[in-house]
Amino acid sequence: MKILLLLRHAKSSWTDPKIDDHDRPLNRRGRDAAPVMARYMAAEGLVPDFVWCSTARRTRETLDLWSLATARTPPVEYRQDLYLAGVGTIVATVRRTDDAHRTAMLVGHNPGLAHAAQELLVDRDSPEAVELSLKFPTAALAVISFPVDRWADAGPGTGKLERFVTPRRISTLSDED
């Protein structure tokens, strides 16, 4: 069994129009949301043993905040080709993951993450899969399991969406406690 965690970067700042898109930092809301998602993931045992991350500043900052909040630093490979990557690049990257890793996380961007998640799923019509396809908010997480021993076998139509979680949903869960 292999587990893929698709984490969209947290909310980024648009205040300075002179900053290149690749270099946009997180805004306050993003800096608040990333640790919330990280703590949720740690509490739920959703911790990767390897991370793929776009080289964009907002994805790197999201991952840094995740590491600080969880006190975990799994090995990371930063990849320029994950910046605004499409489905093909994301799926190919996932399938290149070393088989020694059971749980891998990819920190990236939309619409590529939402499209890749849909591409990987067996059941694209479940309520959570439909929700994910309609809106994959910043700092949201899709957890996809694959009944395979090798990442190379985690291809289109082979994954099961175990859960789709947004920062807003976590806040709602916290309010109910």
Automatic annotation (TrEMBL):
SUPFAM superfamilies: Phosphoglycerate mutase-like (SSF53254). CDD domains: HP_PGM_like. Gene3D superfamilies: Phosphoglycerate mutase-like (3.40.50.1240). InterPro entries: His_Pase_superF_clade-1 (IPR013078), His_PPase_superfam (IPR029033). It holds the Pfam family His_Phos_1. PANTHER family: OS09G0287300 PROTEIN. This is Histidine phosphatase family protein. The lineage of its organism: Bacteria, Pseudomonadati, Pseudomonadota, Alphaproteobacteria, Futianiales.
